[in-house]
Design a protein that fits this description.
The chain has about 150 residues and is mainly β. The chain has one helix and ten strands, in the order αββββββββββ.
Length: about 150
């Protein structure tokens, strides 16, 4: 049996989680086929003690060509949730570029975000949740969605 880097990484992660528990670990899903991926997620923005005043999602175009995000969305659900909130995307993300999606603000935090390309109103948890990049604006359903419109989770 040939072990791939992804297989070895998954085995190591499972071992560490069994020894250390799951606190502090974030599961990472790999993008299906798009060059656009979720590169960063920050929940709890604006909470007491938070660094940033807003939640945010950052996207990255790993490809060598620009990608239109017209008709796409970022979506969020609580860690055990089955209802998804959506923020529609627009515009184009250049090859190698990043795109900042600002989400809900709280009353705390010390640092404002740079000017975002997209503004939404989703309030994301500081401790656990699910964020998806979807090539439609139709809300996902279920605790662990799958299908052709799911780009990255």
């Amino acid at each position: 049996m040939r072990l791939t880097t992804r297989t070895v990484s998954a085995v190591v992660m499972l071992f560490l989680m069994s020894v250390l528990g799951t606190a502090g670990f974030t599961a990472i899903a790999h993008a299906a086929s798009s060059s656009v991926v979720i590169s960063q997620v920050y929940g709890g923005g604006g909470n007491s003690g938070a660094t940033y005043t807003n939640d945010f999602i950052e996207l990255h175009n790993r490809g060598s060509a620009p990608v239109s995000l017209s008709g796409w969305s970022v979506q969020y659900a609580s860690s055990a949730g089955t209802s998804w909130s959506t923020t529609p995307l627009s515009g184009t993300i250049a090859a190698g570029a990043y795109l900042l999606v600002q989400e809900a603000a709280g009353t705390g935090g010390t640092t404002a975000l740079p000017t975002p390309e997209v503004i939404g109103t989703i309030a994301m948890s500081a401790t656990a949740g699910k964020v998806a990049l979807v090539n439609s604006t139709t809300a996902l359903s279920g605790a662990c969605p799958s299908g052709g419109s799911l780009v990255d989770l």
